[in-house]
Design brief:
456 residues, five-stranded mixed β-sheet, 14 strands, 43% helix, globular, binds magnesium ion
Length: 456
């Protein structure tokens, strides 16, 4: 099988990646760090990494799955409370406390109810709806069961939230059959063992798999063949592209771009004034179905970091701290998704003259609590930033370890568990409603560990 695929490449079948795009292999090595390589079984090359890292297989086949549970919170509630079966069900906060809908089952959605809508509005649209409070612990438990099903087929699982993940099965084909066969098996197991449905998209890359899983929800199953990418993408509206929100959609409509085909046929000349060079290029690549990001199993990461380059150098304290807080939240969300704790925190600053400093600090005990890490990062800032203009700010965590390795301290434990719950609620809300849906006020996070949750 592997040999046949080698031949395909030697035959010179068109590569999906355009010239000059980054190599999946290189990305993967950076992400995993040295020493964590899983030898690539399918191409029989011990120097390559498993699955998507293996360039030619990745380019050539539809072996990336995006699995997304249908109305996850609501489905878990209905499974646990069968008396609500067949009724409109909403999971969300209390109407009199300005709660929002965290999830609605498909029956509730027929009344026009959707995520992020105020619960009071939802109940006005459908007074008969069953309103249940969210139980994040329970959803997290079921999420682990789902993940265990994924891991029967591949170790390369990258979770995006409690209810969706990318799977790279290119290393599993010899054992389990085609990606489609694996997809069907996963759906069946989720239905039989957990009593819920999932929608699956299968494609040569993450971008396409994610679009595909969403197209026929609920209980969807959409395959994008490697030679049918254009036909798949062209008729779709631009809003289907990951990251194209209402604002970008409006800008594109302004230059008569409605479908992905319109976008594909446009030029950088048209896009650059509206979106800048980087985003413009990204949009064009998306319209061509190009995405070379590998599936990164978070569990193997040695470190997790994010950084941001500012369009203009920044010396305002609130902007800088606000940015670092946002980066910290992203990093911590990935850390928790990976089921890891971190011991080391690093601050990175690049100044106007391009000189760069990195400063790190070790914690007495590893943690996955955002407020604890943020507290230390602020101390690093206070020590090492003297007000000079900054062009890039970044933060990262390393020395990751499994939660079991953490020493138990009963008093700390209680506070820690509370903070963990707060973090998980935030992760989930942000996953559903976007990054802006919820954020900690810098001021409140500075003075205490208490995050400031609010709707937007
Ligand atoms: Mg979902």
């Amino acid at each position: 099988m592997a040999m046949a695929r080698r031949r395909n490449v030697a035959d010179g079948r068109p590569a999906i990646r355009p010239e000059g795009a980054p190599q999946a292999v290189r990305l993967r090595v950076t992400a995993l760090g040295k020493g964590s390589a899983i030898p690539c079984a399918p191409c029989l090359d011990p120097n390559r990494l498993w699955g998507s890292a293996c360039g030619f297989i990745y380019e050539d086949m539809s072996t990336i799955l995006h699995v997304d549970m249908d109305a996850f919170f609501a489905s878990v509630e209905i499974r646990d409370h069968p008396e609500h079966e067949g009724k409109p069900v909403i999971v969300g906060g209390r109407a009199d406390a300005r709660g929002v809908v965290a999830a609605a089952n498909y029956i509730a959605r027929t009344f026009g109810i959707h995520s992020a809508m105020p619960v009071s509005t939802a109940l006005r649209l459908c007074p008969a709806a069953v309103l249940l409070p969210p139980r994040l612990d329970r959803y997290s438990e079921v999420s682990h069961q789902i993940r265990a099903i994924f891991e029967r087929f591949t170790p390369v699982v990258e979770p995006l939230s409690l209810d969706e993940a990318f799977l790279d099965v290119s290393g599993s084909l010899a054992l389990f059959g085609s990606a489609q066969t694996i997809g069907h098996k996963i759906k069946t197991m989720i239905r039989n063992e957990l009593g819920m449905t999932a929608s699956i998209g299968i494609a040569p890359n993450k971008l396409l798999a994610k679009i595909a899983s969403d197209l026929e929800k609920p209980d969807g199953f959409v395959v994008v063949p490697a030679d049918g990418i254009q036909a798949f993408l062209d008729p779709l509206p631009v809003s289907r592209i990951w990251g194209v929100g209402r604002v970008a959609e409006r800008k594109l409509k302004g230059i008569a771009i409605h479908s992905i085909e319109d976008l594909r046929k446009t030029t950088m000349k048209q896009l650059e004034p509206l979106f800048g060079q980087k985003t413009g290029r990204h949009l064009l690549a998306c319209a061509q179905g190009v995405d070379s990001r590998p599936v990164i199993p978070d569990r193997e990461a040695k470190s997790i970091s994010h950084e941001r380059t500012f369009p203009q150098d920044v010396d305002q304290e609130d902007v800088l701290y606000g940015t670092l807080l946002g980066l910290t939240e992203q990093v911590m969300r990935r850390l928790r998704n990976a089921d890891k704790l971190a011991r080391c925190i690093e601050l990175k600053l690049r100044f106007a003259d391009f000189s760069t400093i990195t400063r790190s600090r070790h914690l007495a005990a590893p943690t996955d609590v955002t407020s604890e890490i943020w507290h230390v990062l602020q101390q690093l800032m206070q020590q090492h930033w003297n007000g000079q203009p900054v062009r890039l700010a970044g933060m990262g965590v390393s020395e990751l370890q499994h939660p079991k390795a953490r020493q138990a301290d009963l008093f700390l434990e209680k506070k820690h568990v509370h903070q963990q719950k707060v973090d998980r609620v935030e992760d989930e809300v942000r996953e559903r409603f976007g990054k802006q849906a919820i954020h900690r006020g810098s001021a409140s996070a500075t003075s205490s560990a208490k995050p400031n949750l609010h709707d937007s």
